[in-house]
Amino acid sequence: MAPISDLCDQARTYLDRRQVEAIYRAYLLGAEAHRGQQRATGDPYITHPVEVARVLVGMRLDTESVIAGMLHDVMEDTSIGKERIARDFGKDVAHLVDGVTKLSQIEAASRDVVQAENYRKMLLAMTDDVRVMLVKLADRLHNMRTIDALPTDRRRRIARETLEIYAPIAIRLGLNHVKEELEDLGFRALYPNRYRVIQGELRRTRGNRKRAVKNVQTAIRRRLRQEGLAARVLGREKHIYSVYRKMRAKRLPLEQVLDVYGIRILVDSVDMCYRVLGSVHNLYKPRPGRFKDYIAIPKANGYQSLHTVLFGPRGLPIEVQIRSSEMHEIAESGIAAHVLYKDGNARNSVAHRRARTWMQEILEMQKTAGDPVEFIEHVKVDLFPDTVFVFTPAGEILELARGATPVDFAYAVHTDIGNTCEAARIDGRPASLRTPLATGQTVEIVTSRRARPDPTWINFVVTGKARANIRGYLKKLHRDEAIDLGRRLLDQALRREDLSLRKLPKGRRWDILEEFRLDNRDELFADIGLGKRAAGLVAKRLAVSARDPEATAKDANRANGRDMDEVPIFIAGTEGMVVNLGKCCRPIPGDRIVGYLSSGRGLVVHTGSCGNLPDLDSKHEGIDVDWAPEVERQFPVDIRVEAENRKGILATIASAISGLDVNIDAVGIVDRDGVNSQMAFTIEVSGRTHLAQVFRRLRAVPLVRRITRPA
After folding, report:
1. 334: left (phi over 0), alpha (psi -120 to 50) or beta
2. Under CATH, to which class is 198-337 assigned?
């Protein structure tokens, strides 16, 4: 009973008597529910919920959060359900406990998918009520404090998960003290030898460096008193994982990490922060380029402070942080710095506004992500934001991850801006959409109603929101194209059965959907378009369903070959991702072409003479294809030119090609000796007629001996 008595005494410092009684009732319910259960440490299981509740009381959270911490495992590990919790402690507590509870009955192919689904559920519950995440972080913190009792492989897995997911979330919510403890505990469990070495070295060198910092503290206190500036001057020490991360990032030995110890100055107001900064800079010279104003431009989690690095005694760099007492409270406790659910004014705090913005972005990413694993990958991207600050043309500040491009900027402004982004201007000058942005730049996005997300964007965007929206758009586009192609393929296959989609009997037209376990026709068309189902087999099944038995028997006795008047699938090369032109033979309009369905890729088209054309069988269903009558695009094609090896011959041939307004995509020397030079070009033409013009122009070049198109 001693732990719960201590907890109740601690809660009484800011909660009233009835609220503390409710926490005690939750303890009694939890103790009864977990009776007979033990932790890996050998302790009764109820000790864990009590310690989780103690962490939440330490954050001075509201009663509902503390009760949820006390009961967070009962729905998962005992027979008590959500209804009982709601009846005894209210709907808010039941909602919080449900949000923290893991999904124990997910049917998934791998453990990664199960974990990702758990994260997804928890993060989405957090967007509705951030207290879900605060309870979960308290749960993870106590689990990490007792992790030594677990087997090595499980201990390492949980530690890695803590460093990759939970500590970054704590940073994003501004819970600095929770973040630091999670990181140190995770580091110790994942790399125990590295932890011990760094810990030992810090102890060994602590005396000398700490003494130097203490002398600077004394000098700063004296100067501030002389100038009549009221402030508290405190020492600050980097935690072990932060030291390790700096050593790894900058490839430094421990003795060269000079900012292990620093100084923190707390004042009463924003104005006083800047006055103290001026006084400190008069006392010690600041290091150029090391000043950061997080008061004017707060971090993503609402953190505000002035950071500067001074040349201390003997040139030792001393980092100084200057902030108000309120900023310090938020820096340490973040969104938990106020009881947000009782104090309406707290919702206007910087930390709370930033957290709500991030949670809104999580919701948007969830809408566009295809599966839980992809969703978590997008969230991870946003959990490590080494940031840059850029401006909109209207002067608004946007915070983006370092390495962000104009495309990331466009999606940060609005999803529609990103989806219709065509070009960008940085500081008034045209710039590539791939250009990494730098702090202080003004970015303007040029949009067009005809513009669409480019699949290549996914290779250079860095923000989770941009990735999620681009992938979501391309998946929808891919599906729409697959549906259109599948509809055309099925209609073509039905012609072999003397049918068409319009001729199918209305009453029994789509009876086969239930047989194929599909919800609608679009799913069937998409499967056909992506090569997952053979159009011919689906057509025959539809024919059986549509005809009477006598007609079906007659059809079965027919030859299985193609009808002479069968209409091919016409392609224009603009169909997108479900029609793939073979890169080995690069077919162009005018070539005889052959198509086949490849599962997941859709329709693959080669020239009829291509050596890479597979044997067409049940695995690769042959499709009758032909070029559309009017094709309005340029196609890449490979050509080889053999000429006398003379100085300037490559430039002469390239000039002859470009003289026909033909774009050259690639050029290279295949073979060269003292007499001949063989060059390979990839050029863009509209078809065989256009290519013939290029050949005629090249034959007119005196030194050219032979022109071929590789088969």
Report:
1. left
2. alpha beta
